[in-house]
Amino acid sequence: MTENTLNYCTATRMNDTKLGHVQRVREHLQSLENSVSNTDRQRKRKQSDNSSPDSKLKKDSDGTVAQSATGLRNLGNTCFMNAILQSLSNIQVFSCYFKELPSVALRSGKTAGRRMYHTRSQGDSSVSLVEEFRKTLCSLWQGSQTAFSTDALFYVIWKIMPSFRGYQQQDAHEFLRYLLEHLHREMQGSKNGSPSPALSPDRPKHASESKCCINGTSTIVTSVFGGVLQNEVYCLICGTESRKFDPFLDLSLDIPSQFRIKFTKDQEPGPTCTLNDCLQSFTDLEELDETELYMCHKCKTRQKSTKKFWIQKLPKVLCLHLKRFHWTAFLRNKIDTYVEFPMRGLDMKSFLLEPENSLLENCLYDLAAVVVHHGSSIGSGHYTAYGLHEHRWYHFNDSTVTLVSEEAVLKAKAYILFYTERSDQESPAKI
């Protein structure tokens, strides 16, 4: 066999392998799409046949009934997605916006009866994350079925977020970041619905507000979750100070190292780590190590420096991610430290760049939802969520929803915390 013939055969086999892989992905997506259609038909039949009020209720271990709450079916290690969706559904200022959006238009001609989607930013006109997200939120808190299947939404996620394809366990925080980013991008190019009154183009924008517009114009995502950090870097050699504004949708907080010590049964437990400890650690002055040397424009070389974060603008909904997973030489370990967090009145004023220019009421936050990871590693375990709905706390464990006490929520080892800004007229809710 000649060298040219051998190269040709090798290239042919490689192309066949690639084509085979692409074909398998396409077949898998097609099967998922078919299951979506079948699920929709089955769901409509169940809704028309379901006349028993008992099927709409769920009970906890004490027999307390959770009325109107709807769980989400686990499609195969999709608890990470279910926990995030349930949390977002309990953030009223965010979920109500989507639920009030009109449904998308219908196609005409040969595709009459099928929905038309607009996903300009994704380059795929056959799916819409916004529309499937809207339909999912509308299906929750209806009390019309025991559990809702997110097949259609999951299918869209597979198409536009390749890293979430398959049925392996995923990181709930990573999924939240991807979800908000893709919703934001699609809504920037969306032709569906009218803009929120809060995003009206006639309303003058505050200077700090324009800074939190990630990737262009503002949407409901940045309007609700968008805040601004001021990053200050100080050169320890020449004294040059550099300031930069960074928009954020959530804050990732380290659990301070002094609280990560594991105590044996014979040892006295140390002090309890609080959310305030994590926030203080995030905003404390930090000297950058040798791997993070700052490029000083005055010295024209990398120098030792210090870094400090200030919050320049607080968001309407403050999303706090506790960094419970860290990499070692070979694997990603979990920090299982309990972090005490407030149910009401989280005061963020001391972390602001200009606290004297902010009203006290605008710096107070009340808890709306909590995501919890159960297990020892990020690639395994299980996610659940707690959410506050009409002054009552619920625990969302995939298809099961139960009423829980405030004390049960406060005992949770939180992974993600959602706090909503307290308005001037709002007073702490008594549960």
Automatic annotation (TrEMBL):
Q: EC number(s) on record?
A: 3.4.19.12
Does Disulfide bond show up as a keyword for this record? no
Q: Which UniProt key words apply to this protein?
A: Hydrolase, Protease, Thiol protease, Ubl conjugation pathway
- Source domain of life is Eukaryota
Q: What EC class is this?
A: hydrolase
Q: Tell me the GO BP annotations in alphabetical order.
A: protein deubiquitination; proteolysis
Q: Is Protease included in the keywords of this UniProt record?
A: yes
Listed InterPro entries:
Papain-like_cys_pep_sf, Peptidase_C19_UCH, Ub_carboxyl-term_hydrolase, USP, USP_CS
Pinpoint the USP domain residues. Answer: 70-422
Region: Disordered, residue numbers: 31-65
Q: Name one GO molecular function term.
A: cysteine-type deubiquitinase activity
Catalytic activity as recorded in UniProt:
Thiol-dependent hydrolysis of ester, thioester, amide, peptide and isopeptide bonds formed by the C-terminal Gly of ubiquitin (a 76-residue protein attached to proteins as an intracellular targeting signal)
Record family assignment:
Belongs to the peptidase C19 family.
Name this polypeptide is given: Ubiquitin carboxyl-terminal hydrolase
Species of the source? Cyprinus carpio carpio
